[in-house]
């Protein structure tokens, strides 16, 4: 691994004095000036010039102007952010590493950056430092960090109305390239897309257990499972692999980066399966008839209910002017995915995280589990402290259990949806704990002292971020697999 020298430039104020100092030294030597010489012109002792060149002192503007004049360059030239040479970049990076908190925490002496220290030695130290830092970051990837990252991401999505114009453009470009005019994306078109991007498809029975697909960039192959055990859409698996490639997804920097990559690849895959142009045409026609329905979108584009619901939230605000919320809730009542730009107040923990929180038992996302008819969509109006919302929920089953997938909108915009005439109503005063958190007095008084339940913990909430180059993936297994199939 090469240490990331140029990127070290921008994260601290220290940079300026270090880089400026190195540039001054370089210019001074180029002009054949000694430390004494420059000191005399500047009106300072040689030792002071050395302190400046070593980046141990910030320069005042007047000093910068004076130095620029003496060295016959502009101030802008002196302040250029890039290191004057590759060697200087290495030296600056080493200085910075030594001044950082990680180095300070190690029982190591400070290492003077001398000419006798070879480039290779500096590179090795920097690589070790980077690796140590990565390990620290990895260890710090606690559930708290994951939840903070999730919260940040949800804010970003809200600001963008869950719509990514540049990914829509990328999707359109790809579909145009294989002559797909719109409408549902067949398995054949998905394969054409793979070929267009230079990949052949290989269906194998021995795909590593920790992966959904493996892409071999050396031989231009995508390996996919022969049969999908979890009922996942095979197109979706392929399109996600292609999306990773198209978006240039690499090893994530941290958990936030990992989440962002996942959101973008999911988005692009969904935008390929439900192309914007035809989907919007379809939705606008439905809206004009007041027949908006996630089911219809699902059926028209032959995708899963969750993909249809996800895609609906991408396009609803941008193209239909309808604010929405989306919830995926486990049968235990905990939220696994959430999005809103309609102020539907989701339950949160102290850090503002929504994932893993219990949804009010009166919300559509919970009530749908009590409905015996699982084939028809369930609709409900819920009076919440912030207003009345209309929601449509449906249950889907995966290897992790049953989940409800819900799409909702405020009362004022419910009029565009099929199912707006439902008689199902509920009232929720959550987060007030008298709503559904506290047991009724009669039951509590009888059982409070005589009950001992054992909780079923949702392991994904407690586990730290999976480690490894690609989180959750067994790299050895993947490399062995590729080795085995090579040639
Ligand atoms: Zn409640």
Please give the largest β-sheet. 6 strands, mixed
Uncertain regions: pLDDT < 50 for 5+ in a row? 1-15, 459-467
Structural class: alpha+beta
Strand content: 5-15%
How large is the count of helical segments? 20
Bound small molecules, by name, code or SMILES, are: zinc ion
Strand order of the largest sheet: 5-4-8-7-6-9
What Rg do the Cα atoms give?
29 Å
Structural description of this entry:
The protein has 487 residues and is α+β, with helices and mostly antiparallel strands. It has a domain at 6-139: 434 Repressor (Amino-terminal Domain), CATH 1.10.260.40. The chain has 20 helices and nine strands. It has helices spanning 14-30, 35-42, 46-53, 61-71, 75-78, 86-99, 101-104, 119-139, 143-159, 165-177, 187-196, 234-246, 255-273, 276-288, 294-301, 305-320, 364-367, 441-447, 459-462, 475-485; strands at 200-204, 214-216, 221-225, 325-330, 335-340, 378-384, 387-398, 401-410, 425-427. The strands form two sheets. It has a six-stranded mixed beta sheet. It has a three-stranded mixed beta sheet with strand order 1-3-2, with helices on one face. β4 (325-330) and β5 (335-340) form a beta hairpin. α1 packs antiparallel against α6 (86-99), α9 packs across α13 and α14 (276-288) crosses α16 (305-320). The protein is elongated, with a radius of gyration of 29 Å. The chain starts with 13 loop residues before the first helix and ends with a helix. Mean pLDDT is 86; it is low at 1-15 and 459-467. It binds zinc ion. Zinc ion binds next to loops.
